[in-house]
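Input.
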Amino acid sequence: MLDEQAKRANVIKAFQDLANVDNGIRKDDPIVIYYAGHGGEVSPPSERGLNGSLVQCIITQDVSKTNGVVPIPDFTIGALVHRISQEKGDNITLIFDCCHSASGSRDQDLVGARFVDKKELPSLAPSIDWDIIRGARSTSRDFVEPQSLGMDSHILLAACGHGEVAFEDRKEHRGYFSMALLKLLESVRVDSLTYKGCMQRLPELRTRRQVLARIHVILLASYHIYFTPVRAQNPVCEGKHINRIIFNARVPGTSTSFIAINSSPNEIHLLAGLVHGITPGSKFAIHANDALGPDNPSLGTLEVEKVEPFIAHLKNGEQLGLAALAYGRQVAYGSEQALDICVTEQFVEAAKPSSKWARLFSGGQEQLVLRPTDEKLARVVLSVDSNREAVFTLNNQTSIKYGVHTLPAPGSSPIPPEAPHVAPILAALAQWNWHLHHIPDVRPFQKSIDVEFYKLQFLGDYTDQDSPIFVPVGNNLVANGEVDIVVSDQDCYGLNIVNRSMTDLYAYSLSFSATKLTISTPRSCSRAVHP
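Output.
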């Protein structure tokens, strides 16, 4: 659909046609929806102005204040895509070469930008596209907007991040993002490329705005004048399945344990560091790409020599002759990630003899480093119960206080005191425990952040995205850094994080389960939420 054909009604109908039962698209067939054009932000309709956030939208050919045709808002696109996924599965890729916000930009910097200012766009009427939203919500209450993290229904490849600008080459009349993406897809085997790997392989976009920034550097450097760098155009990839093979839902995809590696003649380093849990002495198997399978064997193993907050330097990597971008998968941990453990005599007597025990406690188990110690100093005490089944006791004061310090949890299957059953649990405990207690040496924002926890009340109504509307009731439940509640499946709670610093901060919340040894992330929204 090109140029004048791309009118609002036609674009919406094209989305709806993809969801038709008899259109020849089978369940889980790959569906690619590509949009290249202008985007923008407008004020929300009256029933959606709950938090004051602007609504992102795409600008079709016929949008005009004169004829009353409004842009297509993000919540309408979310409903349309959700309807497609209901009929055709979640193998949907959205590619948007546009931008929605150019705040803080000078007009002369926006030549060639795929952005339309809010003041030039018509306002959204109340209950806009309600028939489309109602059609999606009639069958379920689980869809989210394209811009939200944890997207189950699709992957979003966007030309730029929030607050950035997407540019086009004015001579070619094509977006820099689209040109770079097409060039990449034509140069690699798509059946071994993941969405995440695709975005990591994209070159730096040589937009006009970046060229202007470099000229400013040259002109001002000799006079020692300092300025705020102009933001670049950085494409983003969002969605639950970003580790899936691109355009192919049936391929298992990648392991999230793969970490990108940058290689140059002088240095090889992981794109992860201390904040990601990497420590000196850790070892990584090196692979050409991040797709699991026999076509991607290990090229060798490298050890971490030095770690910085966001990168880790690998030693002796030049011998592998790596490409500029490779991937590492952790296969051994450094001594800093050792698990302090006490093994009781009762467990030793009950344990089934095996040569695996010797390897386990001598460092022969690559993904686990155990450090035997006294019971009072141990993070974990390994013992047996009255039935001579293995019991793991966590010496975590908070877990002990609330009675969730022993594994397996009540009602779980017993664990025989045998190495094949015990070793995986110890490995999980080691990683879970290390991440739980891992904090940076310097925490400059700790005194400027308040964490609040509230019980929520459902108002009995839903947003247009079909999300239930809650309001906090009662006081902040946090007391001395803890929240003590009796869990009920009828109750809902919300976390409120207050930033009192002068710096923009982004919160990543993690949930540590002491009974399942899992570390999970709750769903959150990647869009800016204004106070």
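Residues 338-437 form one domain.
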